[in-house]
Write a structure and sequence with these properties.
This protein is an alpha/beta fold. It is built from ten helices and six strands. Helix 2 packs parallel to helix 3 and helix 7 packs across helix 10.
Length: 219
């Protein structure tokens, strides 16, 4: 039987490129695609693929949430992250949520294919740049208080630093505006951040967001 794969990325052209690369491999078949975390969860439940390959930067809830929800529904799910984000903290988040592998989009195509083979064998896989980032971060002890944040606080920090208002974050995560503001206050205290701009720099440095994600807007 063919190895079934679910592709999750919000860009159709990118998904088409993945599909062509993957289906050149004998016995691999892309059986479904999704453009958001919610769609990924629905497609996984509908098709039960052997492997999920997903980006973390999705409209609405992030790929981290998609990983978490899929793994809650199926604890044996094999999920490989393929993302532009190369920060050690983001990779740790993905693994903590249940990812089996993490490959950066800056890697050669062969690294993605190698990681797919490894994850399908039940192994953990990382591209060279991700492994290097994690190793360097470990040596430097460079998490600057981010390890003290809860998964919800990390999600709120990522969304806020990526340019979303507190109101938009509240609506996306089904929280009250007051809860989001309270979380942001706790985050600032834990990280010693003086301003929203300082939070953005911390998030950028940790790889939670990329420079192209933008700056947070005030309500």
């Amino acid at each position: 039987m063919a190895t079934s794969i679910l592709l999750v990325d919000d860009h159709p052209v990118v998904r088409e490129g993945y599909r062509r690369l993957i289906e050149r491999q004998q016995g691999w078949e892309v059986i479904a695609e999704a453009e958001s975390a919610a769609a990924a969860y629905r497609q996984y439940k509908a098709h039960a693929p052997d492997l999920v390959i997903l980006d973390l930067s999705l409209p609405g809830p992030s790929g981290i949430e998609a990983i978490r929800h899929i793994r809650q529904w199926d604890g044996t799910a094999r999920i490989l992250v393929f993302s532009m984000r190369t920060g050690a903290l983001v990779a740790r988040q993905a693994f903590a949520a249940g990812a089996s592998g993490y490959v950066s989009k800056a890697s050669p195509p062969r690294e993605l294919l190698t990681a797919v083979f490894a994850v399908l064998r039940g192994e953990r896989a990382m591209s060279a740049d991700i492994a290097r980032a994690i190793a360097q971060d470990e040596v430097a002890g460079g998490r600057a208080g981010l390890d003290d944040l809860t998964s919800r606080e990390l999600e709120i920090l990522s969304l806020t630093a990526g340019g979303m208002t507190a109101q938009a974050v509240a609506e996306m995560l089904c929280l009250s505006l007051k809860t989001v503001h309270n979380n942001l206050s706790v985050i600032r205290t834990k990280l010693g951040a003086r301003t929203d701009a300082h939070l953005v720099w911390i998030a950028l440095g940790a790889g939670l967001v990329s420079p192209s994600d933008g700056l947070p807007r005030r309500e």
